[in-house]
Each structure stands twice: as C-alpha cells, then as structure tokens.
Design the sequence.
C-alpha cells in the first residue's frame, strides 16, 4: 500500500499492511519547538525552524523528518488573508481573528486571557454588535490554497488532512470565558444558542469557501472542540444534546455535502458518554484517545466501538512519552495496535502535541516500533 491507501484502508475499517502514522497532520498531533530542536539534533537535520502555529508553539516539521519516520499524512495548511493575521499587543499578548486575546505562559504556550472579548450580561444585541470575521476576506488566498491542495493530492501519495473551523463549545469559552460560558448555557440559553448559531454561520461560510476550492483533494477533515476533562465531560449529556449536538449535526451535514473526506473530531479528556452521539452526528474518527483519562481506556473503547468509529492518537503524552524509556514506548505502541488496530480503524500518533519534556529517543521509538509491526 502507499501512504494514502494505508490511511484510507484503516479509516474504512479494513486491514492495512501496517498501522498508519501521523505526525503534524493537524494542530493536535504536532511537536513543540523545544522538543523539535532536540529531535532535529538527534536525526542530524540542519536548517532553521519555523512555526506552524504561533499560539501553540508548534514547529513546522521538516519533510526529511516525516520521510525518515515514513509518516503517512500531510497537512494542507490554511491560507490566511492579511486582515486575519494575529496582532501582537504591547504587553506581548496576541489578539486572533476572533478577537480573543492570548497570553504566553510557561513553556512558551499561549492561553486565552481572562480579558475576554464578549464581556457583559450576555445580550442578543452583543452578538449583533460584535466584530465577526468576514468570510469574503478569504477570496484573495483561495487560488493559492486550491493549487497547494491539488499539488499535495496529485504529486504525492500521502493522506491529506485539513483543519476545518468548527468550534462550538470552545468558541463560547473563548469569547465569554470558561465559567461565564457554562453559566450562559444554563441560565441564559437563548443568548448561548444565538452566539453559537452566529459563530457556526461564520465558520461554515469560511469553511465552505475552503472546501469549494480544495474539498476534492482532502482525505481527512479535522475539527477541534474540547468537551472533556481528565475525569468527566465538561457538561452533562443532556446539555450537550440540547446545545451542542444539533449544531454538530448541521455542521457535519454541511461538510459531507462538499467533500468525501472522513471527519475527525479532536476532543480532549473524557467524552465516553458522548460517543454514541458522535456516531449519530456523523463523526468518523475520534482523537486524541488519552489512555490515562477516566473511561477512555483504549481496550474498553476498542471492544465497545471498534468497527463503528476509528481512533487516532493513543500514545500517552502525559506519562509514557515524557517519563518512560524507549522500551516503555515500544510496549505501549504494541498494546495500542493490539487493542485498536488489528482489523483497521486506527491511526497511530501521540495523544496530543509532543511537549518539550519528551526525549527524541522516545519519539523515535514510537514511530520506528509502529513501522516494524506488520499486520
């Protein structure tokens, strides 16, 4: 199999020749700059490092590294119009295209500040007055975006991954603040739903332009929207089904009308109570599969949902990769393949972005042991 065939076989729950692997296919399977520099030194890769994502401090991964590990995916990057460029503020924080202000904290990460852009009581008029991104700004970059998608699809055999702007839960937390947004959904539901409807309208208009330009070249659509904590979902299943699920249904229907790509949802933490709902709304792939999170044990998920949903991730970035030995990493890789991958339905990657405390030897062990495990 070539790389694209291998990934698509797994995502169709067919048995590939070996487990497909991802590194940096989207912004939740990347590598932080500090860890990347150590990996470059280990592999003897020279040249300057550039950023794929400023806020997460993710490195743009050199093609030589991706080929060294025989990675099966490639990222189709968004093209950003001038009006959407991040704005550096006087205190060193950054304002993004949605008006969210991000502040740098430990290890170089940026996180949303408490100075949220949509403050106040939560009035419907606040939504009308807000300065939302204009989807028409994209028109200037669409030809270049379409050409890059065509080249990746026609001139390589990699599975092409594109990140679609589909935030719902996290859009509310970014615009209103985490605590306020949770209160909004309970005590001010008309405002909360109106905010999500406007935000989804804007994101679908933006995403629709990208898919019209390059949807035929994309194999996997990645959407990031966290719904879980280490111990439980952020909200009750009842509230999810009232506020979030109907809008997910609308979004995924919109995507399926414009591309044949498989849909991947990235949601950190415990989302076990939602997985049946995810299947109903049309999610094909669940990421990141954090093995140390309550009710997200890979063997349990594989037994209950294997054959109905695919899994992407699974190699622990909280314990095994930073604190284990290469032998520990190799053992975990083999367990994940046995639990999730023998009959297809699994793409192996770190369970989240590889952090600065991960030794390059462990990164090498993860991909080299997976590549050697023939199915």
Sequence:
């Amino acid at each position: 199999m070539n790389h694209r065939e291998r990934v698509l076989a797994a995502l169709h729950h067919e048995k590939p020749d070996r487990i497909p692997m991802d590194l940096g296919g989207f912004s939740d399977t990347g590598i932080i700059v500090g860890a990347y520099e150590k990996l470059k030194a280990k592999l003897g890769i020279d040249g300057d490092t550039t950023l794929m994502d400023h806020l997460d401090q993710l490195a743009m991964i050199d093609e030589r590294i991706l080929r060294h590990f025989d990675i099966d995916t490639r990222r189709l990057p968004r093209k950003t119009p001038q009006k959407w460029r991040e704005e550096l503020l006087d205190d060193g924080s950054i304002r993004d295209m949605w008006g969210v202000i991000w502040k740098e904290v430990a290890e170089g990460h940026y996180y949303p500040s408490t100075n949220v852009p949509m403050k106040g009581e939560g009035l419907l008029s606040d939504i009308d007055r807000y300065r939302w991104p204009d989807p028409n700004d994209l028109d200037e970059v669409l030809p270049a975006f379409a050409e890059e998608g065509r080249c990746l699809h026609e001139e390589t055999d990699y599975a092409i991954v594109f990140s679609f702007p589909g935030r719902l839960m996290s859009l509310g937390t970014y615009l209103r603040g985490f605590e306020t947004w949770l209160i909004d959904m309970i005590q001010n539901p008309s405002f909360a739903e109106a905010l999500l409807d406007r935000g989804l309208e804007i994101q679908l208009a933006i995403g629709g332009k990208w898919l019209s330009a390059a949807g035929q070249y994309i194999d996997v659509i990645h959407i990031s929207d966290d719904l879980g904590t280490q111990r439980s979902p952020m909200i009750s299943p009842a509230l999810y089904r009232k506020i979030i699920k109907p809008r997910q249904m609308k979004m995924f229907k919109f995507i399926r009308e414009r591309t044949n790509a498989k849909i991947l949802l990235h949601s950190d933490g415990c989302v076990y109570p939602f997985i049946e709902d995810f299947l109903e709304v049309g999610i094909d792939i669940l990421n990141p599969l954090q093995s140390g999170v309550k009710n997200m044990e890979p063997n349990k998920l594989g037994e209950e949902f294997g054959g109905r949903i695919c899994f992407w991730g699974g190699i622990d970035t909280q314990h095994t990769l930073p604190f284990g030995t290469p032998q520990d990493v190799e053992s975990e890789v083999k367990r994940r393949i046995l639990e999730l991958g023998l009959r297809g339905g699994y793409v192996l990657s770190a369970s989240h972005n590889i952090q600065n405390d991960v030794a390059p030897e462990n990164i090498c062990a993860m991909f080299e042991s997976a590549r050697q495990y023939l199915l």
Remarks:
- The chain is about 40% helix and 15% strand.
- The two ends are 12 Å apart (CA to CA).
- The chain has one domain: 3-80+120-372.
